[in-house]
Amino acid sequence: MSNTDIEIVVDDPTAPDADSPAVTSNRAADVVVNLLLLSLALTLGYDNWRTGAGWEATGPQPGYFPFYLSVILAGASLYGLAAAFLSRKEARETFVTQAQLRRVSAVFVPTVLFCLATQFLGLYVASFLLISGFMRMIGKIAWWKSLLTAFVFTAVMFVTFDIAFDVIMPKGPLEAALGR
Questions:
Q1: Which among 178, 179, 107, 122 is positioned nearest to 154, based on CA atoms?
Q2: How far is CA 30 from the centre of its chain?
């Protein structure tokens, strides 16, 4: 027996429950995603048709290539919709359970809030809050370690981007008060 045949099983105490009820099926998720992509393709196709999707004497108009890319995206979306409706297996399989969705939301919701906070607080303050919050709430790391790590990381980002490379980053009221 080689070492590659040995299976190592490690229990994860934070793993979602195996008996958690299903939220949605693979088919429903496929249909929703394909409908969103189809609506994006139609919107982009219309807009590029409006700006010019033809060929002129000097070459393609501005919307030529994006229009045909949106046609390809629409075709792929329609194929995905047909495949989702014709597959019996997809309708039975669980896409996500409540426990899994709770774990994903624990990361997704703070990330969306980070994006919103960046608009009002600036990149560095929002990053500090996100890093320290994730470390404390999800990682269960001590407050002082979370705050110290977030501060050091944010300070390194500030020195690297704002001072060393002079990259324009979203600023908030704290940076304005410090004269940056």
A1: 122
A2: 17
pLDDT digits (tens, 9 = 90+) for 47-70: 999 988 888 889 898 899 999 999
Residue the block writes with tokens 């969705």: 101
68 vs 50, 64, 72, 77, 118, CA distance in Å? 13, 7, 6, 14, 36
Q: What is the pLDDT of residues 125-166, one digit of tens each?
A: 999 999 999 999 999 999 999 999 999 999 999 999 989 999
Q: What is the pTM of this model?
A: 0.70
**pLDDT given for residue 3 in this prediction:** 59
